[in-house]
């Protein structure tokens, strides 16, 4: 095992990842404004057991303790997100200096400990004031995001060299505006596709703002959740289902970003629900500006099967209503959440990106993790990490330029619509006492990283 563990090159980045709404708590403290997740969590039935991120891990007050955990783990990097409503409470206009001061203290302490901050500007917590004006359906939100990115850079650019504009725009747009499972809880067709486009436009506009001000060592990228889609059977119907899911989840985002082109089957797939009037001349040039790196979040592979549409009338369908369902293969190993565990899907994702996109930038695995019930003897998570790290090593051997790995997550946390049942942390959190307890996977990963030298 030692020989395998030392296969990662010198300089490979090891880190953990979190998101502001999932860990910070303190949603009404020091001038923070409400986000769409604060609002969504109050909708009856939207979140399991009516839970919310109101308190979460209380990281806003316990962040020093959490930096100590990173230090003990031995990671050299920490990916965290800024809460837009903590910095610009209404989405534009007044800047909340107390919010910026919180992130400056965190980033400064990380740097003192030799842990490089990787900052994500947007991890789903849109200021509610902007949603009240249409949210990501509206082009103006992309402009406001660029303004916010500039504010964040002016405050933190002296300490932060790696900037991630968006986390998983698929979830923000399709899961939030089409499936309705995440905030703001909409079930739309045209509006959801507009949200996806405006998120990418916001990325491009923010990238330009950051680069106007960047030092030579600054790097700007984006994080996408990637799920390779495969037909559940050899039928033509399932092959078509896999194509549609691949477009919805993957190519709708990767093609504009990495090819500077809209996916060729967008009109065929979505023409009945949208006229694509949200696309403007010049948008692709903004969206497709070269990336310094691409963040890839991988959890599972999608096995797509044809299924009945929810809406018989094509014009009434949401962008998620594609006549497709995901199935779990018979006999597949699954996580504690029932997700298929297929590390070969990560290898497939990385090779597929390299083959489809000739100008692919270096890759960071910005999220990869295992959900369970929070047991301290989490051997399932250890197995998951070992097998997925092996898949990354194999992809690197096959020529994929992977520069780092961020485990999701440092802490058990608020897991969106699942509430607090699903736990992904290397560290257990008792939400009543806020006590942190290192799990078996924490110690395994610490040893693994230590062997890397």
From TrEMBL:
Belongs to the glycosyl hydrolase 1 family. It catalyses: Hydrolysis of terminal, non-reducing beta-D-glucosyl residues with release of beta-D-glucose. Gene3D superfamilies: Glycosidases (3.20.20.80). It comes from the Bacteria. Pfam families: Glyco_hydro_1. One of its GO terms (molecular function) is beta-glucosidase activity. This is Beta-glucosidase. InterPro entries: GH, GH_1_N_CS, Glyco_hydro_1, Glyco_hydro_1_beta-glucosidase. It comes from Streptosporangium vulgare. Its EC number is 3.2.1.21. The lineage of its organism: Bacteria, Bacillati, Actinomycetota, Actinomycetes, Streptosporangiales. It is an enzyme of class 3 (hydrolase). The keyword Hydrolase applies. Keywords: Carbohydrate metabolism, Cellulose degradation, Glycosidase, Hydrolase, Polysaccharide degradation.
């Amino acid at each position: 095992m030692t020989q395998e563990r030392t296969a990662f090159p010198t300089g490979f980045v090891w880190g953990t990842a979190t998101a502001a709404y999932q860990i910070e708590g303190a949603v009404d403290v020091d001038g923070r404004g409400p986000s769409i997740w604060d609002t969504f969590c109050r909708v009856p039935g939207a979140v399991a057991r009516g839970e919310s991120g109101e308190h979460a891990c209380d990281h806003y007050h316990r962040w020093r303790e959490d930096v100590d955990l990173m230090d003990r783990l031995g990671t050299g990097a920490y990916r965290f997100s800024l809460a837009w409503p903590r910095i610009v409470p209404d989405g534009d206009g007044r800047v909340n200096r107390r919010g910026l001061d919180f992130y400056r203290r965190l980033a400064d302490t990380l740097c003192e400990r030799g842990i490089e901050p990787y900052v994500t500007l947007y991890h789903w917590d849109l200021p509610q004031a902007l949603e009240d004006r249409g949210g990501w359906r509206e082009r103006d939100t992309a402009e406001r995001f660029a303004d916010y990115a500039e504010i964040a850079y002016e405050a933190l650019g002296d300490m932060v060299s790696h900037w991630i504009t968006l986390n998983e725009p698929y979830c923000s747009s399709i899961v939030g505006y089409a499936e309705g499972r995440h905030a703001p809880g909409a079930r739309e067709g045209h509006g959801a596709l507009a949200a996806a486009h405006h998120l990418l436009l916001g990325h491009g506009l923010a990238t330009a703002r950051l680069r106007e001000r960047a030092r030579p060592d600054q790097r700007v990228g984006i994080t996408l959740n990637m799920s390779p889609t495969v037909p559940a059977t050899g039928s033509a119907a399932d092959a078509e289902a896999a194509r549609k899911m691949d477009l919805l989840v993957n190519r709708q985002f990767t093609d504009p970003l990495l090819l500077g082109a809209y996916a060729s089957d967008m009109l065929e797939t979505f023409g009945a629900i949208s006229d694509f009037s949200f696309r403007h001349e010049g948008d692709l040039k903004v969206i497709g500006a070269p990336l310094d790196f691409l963040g890839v979040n991988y959890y599972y592979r999608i096995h797509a099967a044809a299924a009945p549409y929810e809406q018989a009338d094509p014009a009434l369908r949401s962008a998620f209503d594609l006549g497709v369902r995901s199935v779990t293969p018979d006999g597949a190993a699954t996580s504690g959440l029932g997700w298929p565990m297929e590390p070969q899907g990560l290898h497939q994702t990385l090779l597929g990106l390299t083959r489809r996109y000739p100008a692919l930038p270096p890759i960071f695995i910005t999220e990869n993790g295992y959900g369970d019930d929070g047991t301290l003897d989490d051997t399932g998570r250890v197995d998951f990490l070992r097998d997925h790290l092996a898949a990354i090593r194999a992809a690197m051997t096959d020529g994929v330029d992977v520069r780092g790995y961020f485990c999701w997550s440092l802490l058990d946390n608020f897991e969106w619509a699942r509430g607090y049942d699903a736990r992904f942390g290397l560290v257990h959190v008792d939400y009543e006492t806020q006590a942190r307890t290192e799990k078996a996977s924490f110690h395994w990963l610490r040893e693994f990283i230590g062997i890397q030298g």
